[in-house]
Amino acid sequence: MTSRTAIALSGGVDSLVAASLLKDRGHSLFGIHFFTGYESTPPDQIEDVARQLEIPLEMVDVGELFRREIVDYFIETYQEGKTPNPCLVCNPVIKFGAVLAAAETLGAGFLATGHYARTRRDADGACQLLKGVDPEKDQSYFLAFLSQAQLSRAMFPLGGMTKARVRRLAEERGLVPAERRESRDVCFITSSCGRFLEGEGGITSRPGPISNACGRVIGTHPGLHHFTVGQRRGINCPASEPYYVLDLDPRENRLVVGFKADLPVDRCRLSGVRWIGRPPEREIRLGVRVRYRHPPVPAVFEPGSDGSGTLVFDAPEAAVTPGQGAVFYSREAVLGGGWIERYS
């Protein structure tokens, strides 16, 4: 190897096995652990992980940047009546931004992580992002906003493996993770989201009206930050069938609800659209995930100006949530993505 490879060590089984596989392949490897200020795993346990692997370990403090770019973004998005997706921001800004930059100053040419995704070069030498082969663990969605430069420095050793195989490898090799739980949906929240927003974010619970799709007030909500589009629980308004959240209006502090049949929409607006390859000059057919756990659905993307656009779904899609990422696919390849906005 002409340069070193850094492996982001979180303390979990995925990064532990990824590091072990890279050692097998002869990489000049060192671990890098970044502090955000919201860790649940103490540093000495991360050091134990590095000792198991017999690799050096570097520590990087990204706490100030993480608070400003990830936590503040999370809180502000809820204040706007949207539902944030911090992992889509963290990967390009923190992991393959600040942490990759720190790894490069330490002599690393690549940064590896335990993500279940793959990369490959196309005929022109450009880097493609591909789904992980395990459909239950594929994390390509969360990496959709990485740039060509970032993808060219990324390694995902687990992309061609299943989670079950990773666990078996850890057991066979006697590798003991510091963190045995699966990673949380939002790594910096240890309690409920509402409690975090009220404590850390300083958001006050302001009761307001609940109205139905026709505008008639049918109840009172405890605070908009307790809700997201498509949510069923917590509405507490009796009706012939369950209510679901259709929209959040922060200007009027209003929660708009309707029945399940009211959820699907045939299109949505996007902002901040990014493409891994060359942007299309005209409308393009693609598959799109409107949330991580949703399978890609067929749609047409119509380009707008200044990174905007419109998605038109082949069939109406439910729970299209402002603030979430819409990630574009062509079969197994990720094309890019954008942020879902309200459609009016």
Distance between the termini: 54 Å
Q: Which H/E pattern describes the elements?
A: EHEHEHHEEEHEHHEEEEEEEEEE
Computed Rg = 21 Å
Helix content: 10-25%
Describe this structure in words.
- With 344 residues, the protein is α/β, with parallel strands linked by helices.
- The chain has helices spanning 13-24, 43-53, 63-79, 86-105, 148-152, 163-172, 193-199, and strands spanning 4-8, 29-35, 57-61, 108-112, 117-121, 127-131, 154-155, 208-212, 217-221, 244-249, 254-258, 265-275, 284-289, 297-303, 309-317, 325-330, 333-341.
- The protein has a six-stranded antiparallel beta barrel. It has a five-stranded parallel beta sheet with strand order 3-2-1-4-7, sandwiched between helices. A four-stranded mixed beta sheet has the order 9-8-11-10, with no helix packed on it.
- A hairpin with a 4-residue loop joins strand 8 (208-212) and strand 9 (217-221).
- Helix 1 (13-24) packs across helix 6.
- The termini are far apart.
- The relative contact order is 0.13.
- The model has no long low-confidence stretch (mean pLDDT 94).
